[in-house]
Design a protein that fits this description.
This protein is of the alpha+beta class. The chain has a single domain, classed as Nuclear Transport Factor 2, Chain: A (Roll). The protein is built from five helices and five strands, in the order αααβαββββα. The protein has a five-stranded mixed beta sheet with strand order 1-5-4-3-2. The chain is globular, with a radius of gyration of 22 Å. 14% of the residues are buried.
Amino acid sequence: MNRHRIRQALLLATFLLASSIRAQEPAPEPGSPEANKAIVSHYLQILGGGSLDELDQVIGSDFLDRTPGAPKVQGPSSIRDSQKRARELFEDIRYKVGDLVAERDRVAALYTVRATRKAEGGAGKPIEVIGITLFRIADGKIRETWIVNDQLELFSQLGFTIQAPGAPPSKPVPPVKKKPRP
């Protein structure tokens, strides 16, 4: 019996030692690709239902969205305002990150946004949109973004149809039902 207790004590001690070693792994060096990926991950967690007050921790005051055709978005307050509007229209907003790739001061994120519409006429309707964003990080904060989302898919899921200018009205086409992605 003593051998059994000694073996259990040794296993427990080994487990605790291994756990403490893992817990003491150093944080990534500021400005490194790993540190920059952590900043982007935190940002996407905020957008996916986190506290919008935390945006100041990850967005620089000189932030600029350089997405072609997008409205002028500068600084954390612009993102905070747009996310408040999104949360008025959608609930259960979730970002699932597929890939984060970092090199020097850039991080590319491939993600899927899932949410449920709250507005009248479409309440309870789920949406799922794939997006890719390129982030530039400097001094521990996001300074610029270039965003590409599948807007046509989003509009289709919301029940909108798109037609060429001057084209005769077409009959609405129901959105294609997709199988949920893992």
